């Protein structure tokens, strides 16, 4: 199934993101994650992709195939092109196709000195156009409610997003954000710019101060005062922070759905218990 077909059916799409287990984790930890997520029946599950390194990328393919064929949930494989040439992309797409994975999140990836950049695809839009030309995949792309870190301003970021959609992206998934007003303002800018494809809001529950500060420094998301108060008060109390972080995510989601968003994409951090708690608290909300 192509993900585009999930939208416009009268309920908010709910999807989850997982990442391949780190080398230090047991290989079968992904089964525990997926077993847990299976219970909450997300509309699809996406699998992240390392910026380089064939082992990481092979596991993206294997996990996406597992999601499709063992769990019977539509899978979306992330694919970055910053360190991949046309041949690498063809090989990855052929593998996904052979495994029955029909959806790809086409990304540029972060430029890193660890992976010398290849030049076949300069921006994600180039990869989107290339995959759409093949004709056999649903293609999604990333968007940034507060603007991408490299963008000089929000206007140029939206202009390039529109180019990515015009190149063939059929659905967008947003970077994490903590202030819904940022997302609603972004949505308005996108619609004014003529971007009409479904846009999912990316939500990451705050479970540890260290990991959230790391994410924020990597992606530039801002922390509203409501959240900095939570971190100041509960940061040294893991159980309390977990409760407050889950409550914050549920509050964000319920407000986003009230505001008419078409989809919620939950960054699960491979923690199915948290995902289950959140999904259980919004089960009626998301079917209205
Ligand atoms: P692009 O769309 O190419 O944009 C990158 C920058 O270039 C932006 O500033 C944009 O405005 C600008 N730009 C775009 N087109 C043009 C143009 N034609 N001319 C000039 N400027 C242009 N990273 C991973 O490594 N693995 C993952 O699995 C992964 N998953 C992600 C999932 C989501 C939902 C999101 C939001 C991000 C994810 N990332 C992942 C991070 C992503 O790779 C980085 O944010 C990366 O820096 C940008 O990727 P992009 O696809 O948005 O790039």
CATH class: Alpha Beta
Hey, roughly how much beta strand do the residues contain? Answer: 5-15%
Which strand order do you get reading across the main beta sheet? Answer: 1-2-3-4-5-6-7-8
Bound molecules: flavin-adenine dinucleotide
Helix count?
A: 10
Largest sheet: 8 strands, parallel, barrel
Mean pLDDT: 95
Query: For the CA atoms, what is the radius of gyration?
Result: 18 Å
User: Fraction of residues in helices?
Assistant: 40-55%
Query: Got a strand count?
Result: 8
CATH architecture name: Alpha-Beta Barrel
N→C terminal distance: 23 Å
Overall spatial form: globular
Q: What are the segments in which pLDDT stays under 50 over at least 5 consecutive residues?
A: none
Structural class: alpha/beta
As for the number of domains, it is: 1
CATH topology descriptor: TIM Barrel
Order of helices and strands: EHEHEHEHEHEHEHHHEH
Oligomerization state of this entry?
Answer: single chain
What does this structure look like?
The protein has ten helices and eight strands. The protein is an alpha/beta fold and 288 residues long. It has a single domain, classed as TIM Barrel (Alpha-Beta Barrel), CATH 3.20.20. The chain has an eight-stranded parallel beta barrel with strand order 1-2-3-4-5-6-7-8, surrounded by five helices. Strand 4 (103-107), helix 4 (124-134) and strand 5 form a beta-alpha-beta unit. The chain is globular, with a radius of gyration of 18 Å. It starts with 12 loop residues before the first strand and ends in a 7-residue tail after the last helix. Bound molecules: flavin-adenine dinucleotide. Flavin-adenine dinucleotide (FAD) binds next to strand 3, helix 4, helix 5 and strand 6.
